[in-house]
Specification:
Immunoglobulin-like, 5-stranded antiparallel sheet, about 170 residues, alpha+beta, elongated, 2 helices
Amino acid sequence: MTNRVLNILLFIFIISGFVALTAEKGYSQGPPDEGCLVLILKETPQVESETFDFIFNLDGVPSDVSIVSNDAPEDVLLDQGDTLTVTERPKDGWVLEDVECFLPFNVEATKVEGGVELICPEGTESGFAICGFINRISPDKIPTLSEWGMISVAAGLGMIGVFFAVRRRRASQV
């Protein structure tokens, strides 16, 4: 858990430096003059990259977004008073383990089923938030063909080992 938090904080540091260096208007003093900047990132510790589908519902208007895990975050700019609900669509073989948000500037976050609701309050000059969705491979996942192959190879080698052990034992008893 601590390692994951440190990874997210390191990612935040890198992203803030990248944004400050590449943006026409740097965010080193915070997000834009009015509204809130929200970054949504996806983390899958067990694999390098996997595409996940999300629903971004901005003030009642849903939109479908695909995010690649362990890659660049998806950014959304909210106006004052806007509410953004981000929910992850279920994906076969994966379980949403946690949603963690880092809220340094004027953004309110509430966990909802399968995601998070973010609010940029009225009167907010600037706001900034980063939310990370963390997934793990489902423990009840049915093995793939290659996994079944490895299981059968291990079983076959075990049976060969038993055969030679029994044969050697019989030879030593004679």
